[in-house]
Q: What sequence folds into this?
């Protein structure tokens, strides 16, 4: 591949890694920790590998006991490293054959490969500066736990995986279920070699190859290259060398390996999450939530108190002065609820509304649950659970928040209409008129009682003015009281309607802050997660 192509592939891989990391971060607290840790491990390995030598390609030979893996390693590398001593009847530690030592040290340190050998050029495989690192690894079916752990670690770290199988155990469930099938996304950096074909005749060898290819297809590796070889006779060794050399020359193995890791991690993250998008928050759902919370928070009780309080105050201000004082013995409905005071700080005040009983709590729970369920419809299971969880957390904060919102709502209790002043003034004029007429009649009566001259009083249509004053004052007072009661009832309903709107707006603001916004954040998080995961999966 050209230098420009390599840069483009590297840039694309970087974007995918960033998207995968974004998806991982967004899924924190939603998806299980083991799944997120697995993604983190992939990201950490990718970061480490990309910081090391890009000029080296690490090819690992994996195989079961008796597969002839080490013998094939020797045949391919043109050496006897894997069998150089009788103390290594089976591979117990990674062994590296290196073509191009410069820059390989930190890479092998990261791989934790301590036994390293610089090898001479091998025709058809590598020259002294090829940048090829061949690893002979422990048997994956070793009875030693540490050997199996080394294999598991190396499967996740080498650039190219060469699986060496033999005619007797090529279909072994251990290699297919534990290694090949989970690595199906890594077909571009995987080679499968059927070794020891010298033990089979031509017909049997062909049959075994067909059978192996069928098994690999079922493992999801139907497109990978399957080779046959014999470390003993040398058959197929040159073909395997050419396949490895081709990978090294193209300089794509590291990027392809990491890209496959990202694809696999993203797929696993997608499985853990599930597919789908949340329906989202609709205006009608918000309105229903606010309405249900208003009822549960006793807003109708407060609105009724506002209306009755205004009616009482209106009667006190516009009623007949002779009897209006009796209203002082009737408690103010708003003050009984600790509302309508101008001398309290809204953030510190609390109402005296009755605490929510079982019906109110059930109504609140149902409203919040229905809202969360409707908003999260269509979302994958873990995300629906996360959305419901934040809604429940907000639900726990609602009683105190709603009470404070109602206490802090301006109910306009201190606002006095101008017509109260007019009616009050006229009432006192009517009372003074009636009292003046009574006083005048009283003076006339006293003069007559003591047989004193009684002055003639003015008359209108035959009615004496004092009598007219008394009658007019009383009638005017009654008419004003009745008119004031009618106007007061109408104004009380208007005042209550305004209070209802402000109270419902306050409740809606609490619902927005405690329920709607947190749910919206989770829905937005899911949308961003899906977008990041899609970007990570697009190779």
A:
């Amino acid at each position: 591949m050209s230098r420009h192509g390599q840069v483009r592939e590297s840039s694309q891989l970087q974007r995918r890694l960033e998207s995968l990391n974004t998806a991982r971060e967004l899924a924190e607290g939603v998806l299980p920790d083991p799944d997120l840790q697995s993604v983190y491990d992939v990201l950490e390995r990718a970061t480490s590998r990309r910081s090391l030598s890009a000029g080296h390609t690490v090819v690992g030979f994996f195989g079961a006991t008796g597969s002839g893996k080490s013998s094939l390693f020797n045949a391919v590398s043109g050496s006897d490293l894997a069998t150089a001593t009788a103390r290594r009847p089976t591979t117990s530690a990674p062994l590296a054959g290196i073509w191009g030592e410069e820059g390989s040290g930190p890479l092998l340190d990261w791989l934790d490969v301590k036994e390293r050998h610089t090898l001479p050029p091998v025709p058809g495989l590598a020259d002294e500066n090829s940048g090829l690192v061949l690893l002979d690894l422990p048997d994956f079916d070793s009875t030693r736990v540490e050997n199996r752990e080394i294999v598991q670690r190396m499967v996740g770290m080498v650039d190219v995986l060469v699986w060496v199988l033999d005619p007797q155990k090529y279909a072994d469930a251990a290699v297919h279920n534990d290694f090949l099938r989970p690595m199906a996304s890594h077909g571009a950096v995987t080679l499968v070699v059927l070794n020891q074909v010298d033990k089979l005749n031509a017909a049997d060898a062909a049959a075994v190859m067909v059978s192996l290819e069928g098994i690999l297809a079922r493992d999801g590796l139907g497109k990978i290259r399957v080779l046959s070889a014999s470390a003993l006779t040398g058959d197929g060794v040159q073909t395997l060398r050419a396949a490895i050399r081709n990978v090294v020359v193209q300089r794509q193995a590291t990027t392809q390996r990491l890209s496959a890791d990202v694809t696999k991690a993203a797929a696993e993250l997608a499985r853990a999450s599930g597919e789908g998008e949340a329906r989202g928050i609709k205006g009608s759902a918000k309105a229903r939530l606010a309405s249900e919370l208003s009822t549960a928070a006793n807003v109708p009780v407060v609105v009724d108190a506002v209306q009755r309080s205004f009616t009482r105050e209106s009667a006190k201000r516009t009623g007949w002065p002779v009897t209006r004082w009796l209203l002082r013995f009737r408690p103010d409905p708003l003050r009984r609820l600790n509302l309508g005071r101008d001398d309290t700080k809204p953030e510190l005040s609390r109402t005296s509304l009755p605490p929510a009983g079982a019906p109110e709590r059930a109504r609140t729970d149902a409203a919040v649950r229905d809202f969360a369920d409707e908003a999260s419809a269509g979302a994958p299971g873990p995300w629906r659970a996360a959305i419901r969880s934040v809604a429940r957390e907000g639900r726990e904060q609602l009683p105190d928040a709603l009470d404070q919102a109602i206490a802090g709502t301006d109910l306009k209790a201190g606002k006095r209409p101008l017509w109260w002043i007019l009616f009050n003034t006229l009432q006192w004029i009517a009372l003074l008129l009636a009292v003046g007429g009574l006083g005048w009649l009283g003076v006339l009566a006293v003069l007559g009682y003591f047989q004193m001259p009684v002055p003639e009083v003015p008359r209108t249509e035959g009615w004496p003015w004092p009598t007219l004053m008394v009658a007019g004052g009383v009638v005017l007072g009654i008419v004003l009281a009745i008119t004031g009661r009618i106007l007061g009832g109408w104004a009380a309903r208007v005042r209550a309607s305004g209070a209802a709107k402000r109270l419902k707006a306050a409740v809606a603001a609490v619902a927005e802050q405690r329920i709607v916004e947190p749910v919206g954040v989770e829905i937005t998080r899911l949308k961003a997660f899906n977008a990041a995961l899609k970007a990570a999966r697009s190779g």
